[in-house]
Each structure stands twice: as structure tokens, then as C-alpha cells.
Amino acid sequence: MSSPRPDYPEQTPWGGHPETPPSPPPAPPAWSPPPAPAAPEGYQPFQQYYQPAAPPRARRNGIAGAVITALLAAFSFIKYGGLFLLKFGAVKTILTLLISFGFYAWNLGWVAAGALVVMILLHEMGHVFEIRRQGMQATAPLFIPFFGAAIFQKSHATDALHQAQIGIAGPVAGTLASAAALILYSSTRWEGFLIAALFGFGLNLFNMIPFGMLDGGWVLSAASKWFQLAGAVLFVGVLLYTGWWANPISWIIGLIGLQSVYQRFRNDRQAYYQSVPVSGRLLMGFAWLGLVAVLIFGLEQTISLIRPLT
To answer: For residue 74, how many C-alpha atoms fall within 13 Å in the half-sphere facing its CB?
Structure first.
């Protein structure tokens, strides 16, 4: 008889779990990407990578902007550069010459304007040359439209004779330039030279009137005070004959001239005039007379050449 089998505890399959198989663990939740951050308002995908750059906006009022820019540049030049350049005499001469040329060209044409400013420049450079030859200083010529040009002496002659030499140097240079223009016309037949000769002879002859601030006044003041009175009468006669009496410039010359006549008589006894020897007085008198004769002859020759062309 077999021995009874001991009672063992009932074995449970599946490693001590209930007989029914355990349910599989729950499946992990399906993967989903994290939520994208909220797009800013008006955002378009890929715009920062693929959107072309916006074309530059067309400026309005382009012409006005260019004008304003040019004006600002001109102002800067005048403020920082122009005032510096104006310290140099040659720059002043060139600028005023160009301004005068513009006024003359507007009234006479560019050929006549060029001839006129060249003749005025050469006349004034005669004064400058003589001033510097005497060891004094003077400014470069300063052009004044419809008035001519002027130079300003930084130092003055010690007597009337030396001042007379400065006064006659301008007409001498102008006469030589006028004669050269007349000779060039005879060789080239270009009317520009003929116009230059006409302006040169005419203006230098007018300047030889011995009155006031005109060159003739400086020249003959060394000879006698009475030439100023004679020059005043001659000045009025020329204005009446030419019709220039209606020109305001003529009135300015006349008013300044009257003051010069008064000063010449008032200061006659000063050493400035009395120190001039008789030989010096005669020299300036004959120099004035000879130069006036040459200018009259040159002017007549020039007019004779102009008549057939008109």
C-alpha cells in the first residue's frame, strides 16, 4: 500500500499568479510632438527664410531733396572753405571777375564781356606792378560790375610824384594791351580783338580825365591843383557829349571827384605836394599829354576799322 502522498500546497502556474494569465501592461500612450508655441500674429511659415527683401521705397520729392542737399553743400563750402580761400587775393580777383563777366555777358554777349574784363584786368595790373616796384603792398584787383575794378593800397606813397607814377601805370599798361589787340586783329581779323581794342582805348582815355578818383586826377595832381578844376569841366562835357550823365555810376564818380577837388585845394601847401620838384611836375604833365594823344589816335584807328563792319 503506497504511502499517502503528502499534501502540498496547490501550485499555481505562472509563477504564483492566478491561473488566468495576467493582463499585459497598458501600452504607453502614443507619442505626439510637443505643442508648438503660439505663432505671433501675422506670422507666415518660412517667411524669415524665403521672403524676399522689400524693395526700397522710392523717395518722394527727389528734385527737392537734391536741391536741398546742394544748398547745404554750398553753405558748408562757403562757411568752411570759401571764407578761407577768400583770404587769398587771386581768389577774390577770379570770383569778382567771373561775376562781372556774367553781368557784362548778359548785356553785351560773351565775346565783348571777355574783351572788357581782360582789358580792365590788364589796366589794374599796371597799377599793382608799379606799387610793388616802389616797394609797397596793394590788394589784388577787385572787380565791381559796371564800375570797373579797384585796388587798395596797404601803404601809400610819400609824395604826389610817386603817387602820380602809380596813377599813370594803369593807363600805360592798358594802352599797350589795346595796341596789342589792334595788331592781333590786323593779323587774324577776329572781331574779338577789335572789340578789345575799342574798350581798351576808350576806357583808358576816359580814365585820363584829370578829375577826382580817375587816374588822370592822380597824374596831374602832382603838377598843379588847377588841373582838378579843368578836369571837372572836362568830365561834365564828356558826360553830356556821350549821354553818360544819366548813368548812376557817373554821378558816383562825380560826387567823389568833387570831394577830391576840395581836398586837393585844401592840402596844397602840404609837403606831400610842395616836395614835388618842377622837373617832376613837367614830367608828369608831358607824360599825361603824350599818353592822351596815343589813346586818341588808337581810338580813331579802331573806330575806322569798325565802321565798315557796321
So the answer is: 6
